[in-house]
Description:
Elements: H1 7-33, E1 36-41, H2 51-58, H3 61-64, E2 67-72, H4 77-85, E3 91-95, H5 96-105, E4 112-116, E5 123-128, E6 143-146, H6 151-161, E7 171-174, H7 180-185, E8 191-195, H8 196-205, E9 214-218, E10 229-233, H9 235-240, H10 242-261, H11 263-273, H12 279-294, H13 297-302, H14 309-323, H15 331-334, H16 343-346
Parallel strand pairs: 1-2, 1-3, 6-7, 6-8
Antiparallel strand pairs: 3-10, 4-10, 5-8, 5-9
Helix pairs in contact: 2-10, 2-11, 4-5, 6-14, 8-12, 10-11, 11-12
Amino acid sequence: MSFPVSRRAAVVAVSAALGASLAALPVREARAQQLTPIKFVLDWKLQGIHAWYYLAEDRGYFAAEKLAVTIDQGDGSAAAVTKVMAGAYDAGFGDVNAVIQNAAAKPGAAPVMVYMVYNRAPFALIVKAGSPIRTLKDLEGRTLGSPAGGAAQRMFPLMAARNGVDAGKVKWTSMAPNLQEQMLLKDHVEGSAVFSVTSYMNLVAQGVDPDKDIRWFHYGDHGVDLYGNGVLVSRQLLRDKPQAVAGLVRAVNKAVRDTVADPDAAIAALMKREPLLNQALEKRRLLYTLRTVMLTPEVGTGGIGDVNDARMTRAIGQVKEAFELANAPTAGEVFDRRFLPPLAERKIAAL
């Protein structure tokens, strides 16, 4: 049997429920306020090489570290560095060689790398497989393409000097980054200085087999021993919220390991953000990147995320030489390993 509810009882019940809801608001707000917001900028538009950041988000790794990470697309690995340096972002995925340049120009103001992702800088020269350019020496008298001021072009004289090539005998044609492969394939240039992890898949997208139809000269195989992109943070974040930096590094490290163990899960996380991407192509890009610039013998020994101090010092010297820097920062000014998880948590088996 049911009994009618009096208006007074109903009002009391609604008031009680509303009061309980309002009372809970400060608790929820307090919990939200416990999360440290971090604005994070990528080096480029969404690609397979960014999948681990979204996997970290989906699996709650950022939240577990009490972080509220907002991830934005970028427009260049060097631009990511300057954006963090300018205070527009707290952290980002950028090029350590750009960190070196900024640290040389403005000591104490440049961002600091705290987790190295690309153990090997992805700079390369590409020519057609049928090209008469079979050695670096064959580049003399040839015309190469590059975006104006491109890092691979800027580092070319360094590689040339170490391989007996007269860089003054090489001509350069400037072009938009998205036209590099097309210009090569249409014979407007005889070679191109590229970012390998991007160019490889651009070639695939154009129906070219980059392993059979293209000859690659990776800078890392020819005396240019540079590191590449990694997680960098602002000096302010480093100074004011070191616990947030440590949490960010732990979360990214977990997601990178998860990505190696299950690339499909990482790509699925990426596709949720950008469904129009070619899923198969982005998975191939991810696997190529893992294989060629991330899971190196050095990483097999020292774990993902860290650097070798002696090699970093040599790399800084090479960047100083290539860009004619007035001075060079120390390895400690560029890379800070204090926030890295223990080696056992950074060990990753090669693919």
